[in-house]
Amino acid sequence: MALRSDWSQRNCSMARGLDIFGDPWGMLVLREVFFGNGRFDAMKTRLQVADSVLTRRLASLVESGLLVKQPYDDGGRTRHEYVLTGKGEDALPVLNAVVLWSEKHLQAPSEQAHMYIVHATCGQRTASADTCTECGERLTAENTSWHSLTRSSAPLPLATAPRHPDKTTNRVQSGGEEGTAA
């Protein structure tokens, strides 16, 4: 589902990647899922986005293979939450790079409006999107936390893709307090 011109068949790797990652709402949806916030209503509240926009972005990320829908029971009614796939997990360095670039080059509107990437294994902040600058270990969703000061006073572990096709659980953390900031 193209949200604009379809760049998926371009002869440029960057153009093909931007076909998926070039939409801010898609990136923010991925951020929410990495934070363990994969239910539609929770994402809608957190992002303050229209139903139609969120529905299209979720469908696009599912169609692209970055997310899958998993059923859950909502008091007698089956609903779906969105969880990462392995392909979605591989997007982590892209999101990390946006965070790092923003922290370096854009002024935050408040002291609370910062987000840091923390290598959970050594407990240190990192200045690299894919490798811990303190200990050199490769960053993965399993060993990385994001510290969004608007969500929590401590870094939050990231959600990961289910490791077994028949397994419907996913390591998730609560999305924290409501609001629109990271």
Give a short synopsis of this structure.
The chain is an alpha+beta fold.
Observed structural traits:
single chain, 182 residues, alpha+beta, four-stranded antiparallel sheet, 6 helices, 6 strands, 32% helix, 15% strand, globular
- Overall, the morphology is globular
Oligomerization: single chain
Q: Give the distance, in angstroms, between the N- and C-terminal Cα atoms.
A: 26 Å
Q: Mind telling me the C-alpha Rg?
A: 16 Å
List how many beta strands DSSP finds. Answer: 6
Number of helices: 6
Derived structural class: alpha+beta
Fold blueprint:
Elements: H1 13-21, H2 24-34, H3 40-47, H4 51-63, E1 67-73, E2 78-84, H5 86-89, H6 92-105, E3 115-119, E4 124-125, E5 144-148, E6 156-157
Q: How would you characterize this protein structure?
A:
- With 182 residues, the protein is an alpha+beta fold.
- The chain has helices spanning 13-21, 24-34, 40-47, 51-63, 86-89, 92-105, and strands at residues 67-73, 78-84, 115-119, 124-125, 144-148, 156-157.
- The strands form two sheets. A four-stranded antiparallel beta sheet has the order 4-3-5-6, with helices on one face.
- A hairpin with a 7-residue loop joins strand 5 and strand 6.
- Helix 2 (24-34) crosses helix 4.
- The protein is globular, with a radius of gyration of 16 Å.
